Amino acid sequence: MTADDTPTLAGWRLTCLALGLASALLVAFATTHGVGVSPNSVSYLTAARNLAAGDGLKTLNPDGSVVPLTMWAPLLPMVLALLAKFGIDPLDSARWLGALLSACNVFLVGLLTWRLGRSALRAVAASWIFLFSLENLEHHTFVLSEPIFLFLSLLGIHFLSKQEDEGGRLPLILSAAAFGLAALTRHAGLSFLGGGLAALWFIGTRDRRRFLRDATIFGVVAGAPVAAWLVRNRLVGHSAVGRPLVLQLDIVPRILKGADTIAGWILPLSIPKWLNLVAALVVTAAAAAVWIYGDRWSGAAPRSVPIRIRRILQCLIVAYIALLGAVTLMDAWIPMSRRVLTPLFTLLLVLGLGSLPRRERWTFGGRAVRAALLLVLALGCAFYAVRGLRWIREAHAEGLGYESVAWKHSGLMERIRTLPEETPIYTNAVEAVYHLTGRISTRVPARINRFSRIPNAEYDQEMAALEESLRDHHAVIVFLNGLEDRIYLPDRDELTRALTLHSEGEWPEGALLRGL
Length: 516
Fold this sequence. Notes:
Elements: H1 9-30, H2 39-52, E1 58-60, E2 66-68, H3 75-84, H4 90-117, H5 120-132, H6 134-140, H7 146-161, H8 163-166, H9 170-183, H10 190-203, H11 208-237, H12 252-263, H13 273-298, H14 305-330, H15 338-355, H16 366-398, H17 405-408, H18 411-417, E3 425-427, H19 430-437, E4 442-443, H20 459-472, E5 476-480, H21 492-499, E6 501-507, E7 510-515
Parallel strand pairs: 3-4, 3-5
Antiparallel strand pairs: 1-2, 5-7, 6-7
Helix pairs in contact: 1-4, 1-5, 1-16, 2-3, 2-19, 4-5, 4-6, 4-7, 4-14, 4-15, 5-15, 5-16, 6-15, 7-9, 7-10, 7-14, 9-10, 9-11, 10-11, 10-14, 12-13, 13-14, 13-15, 14-15
């Protein structure tokens, strides 16, 4: 037995299960004040509550109307609505669902890493790193689709890699079902359908007839529900994915944002921008080395389990990167943020740690290089633990998103609750006002379309209508601070100049404005 094999296989399973349990407990601890609620979370929660009430999958539109859910995939609100039928509030069910799925995902990351590299040590390290990663902690503590999406995607990889071992079609069907449900959780999962089809070719016997048969089964099982959802969106919302797609050439800022996100995988978050770019290049070079030399390092037979998992991961990574490229060129709104890059982080974590050579296959550097790499792995685990525990402590103390202590005790939101019911409310954060007060509001006019960056041709007329509402109907504007990413909306100075506003009240989180 080599150093890579300690702890034993049984010990590895128990250790990863323990890490999964620890992850669930940490998620529960971080959400003491309630599961985190972000702007996207409000859409999921609203759709879940409407569905549970029998009103269908509908959510809140920026203009204050209730519209069919099209921009977001439906599986998360459907799950929350189902649990609501048993009397569980969606906020409560989302909290415990996040904790449960965090445990499952930590274990699955370790499982796939072990099946790829046959190294218990690196399997435990992968589970440890994922446990304390912000990709795990941030997304499993908020009402977001990532927990279910990662769980289904990892299950899809696991089942697809078992197809050749077990024979028959059950692993293929289970894999297709998992990937199809993943695509119904996040529209980004559509890339994994293409990646899964490509993987069928690379992990199979390359027999065309068998590939066509398997691809047909995979396509029907995985694609039919997704196709039905996209057609439904087209019929009820005039867009399959709920947004316009226009060619975007100003992509450098988003590429740099992606570099910052990737640098955060190995460095603290607050560092000079130039160092972020260097770190992103280091991560890219390391991933390229693993990609090129992984087969040689593993020494596995061409159609063995490790090689099959490598091919599946590689196909999914290529498919997801292709999707990111298309999104960068066609959608001006989606940033290369941690949320968007979390699937890539997870796949590269498994591929990277699972592809490192075992001790007996080291052909360069001898003991010194092995010791150096073990030291780097130990430092990486320590880095993730320190950063993750600091984040958990802050989340436990302050709360998360719109469920944080500050927002729950917001003087501004308390003031909004006291407004007469007939008072029209305009705001730069419709979702915040609705979630925190239950009041329906209307978004202030947008200068540009946030998805296409095309100027709003009706901006002047909408501002005139807002001014009339302020004057004749005593409307108010609730302007929240700290929303710098909403560059498609006018800032406070622009609103004040255009509408001649005065402040009725100021709070740390924003202001209540009225017309003169």
